[in-house]
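Dear colleagues,

As part of the handover before I leave the project, I'm documenting each prediction I ran so the next person doesn't have to rerun anything. This entry is a single chain, and its sequence is reproduced below.
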Amino acid sequence: MITVILADDHAVLRDGLRYLLEAAGDIQILSMAANGQEAIDQARKHCPDVIVMDISMPVMSGIDATRHIGKICKHTKVAILSMHHTTEYIQRALEAGAAGYLLKDSAGAELVAAIRAVKDGKRYISKSVSKNFGDSDLLWKENPIN
């Protein structure tokens, strides 16, 4: 079973993601957070396999929370799920330690695939995001996470 925390400031999105991910059969939602600080607090409490994290949240951004979580739970991977598709946001998330990056317009099946991939130590970038990068910029996608 893959353990997951959902972090997004929109309750309806968190609830929808919970139902979508639990229907996959191999994903268990441990808790949900409405901002970056809550995500850190929940990570400290549960140290899940994966945190699905929004970037734009109140109190603390998902990028800042990702940096902190990497120090708290060494095995926890963060998959960013965001509406931001610019290279700047993507690079900042990856530099903060995110193992994956998907846009909120991604299909549910892609999110499930991304969670499984990052849990297995791989990096995952959404197809809709990868078109913003040149071939050399995508090399990070192929490399396992340390």
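The longest strand covers residues 27-33. The chain is about 45% helix and 20% strand.

All the best with the project,
I.
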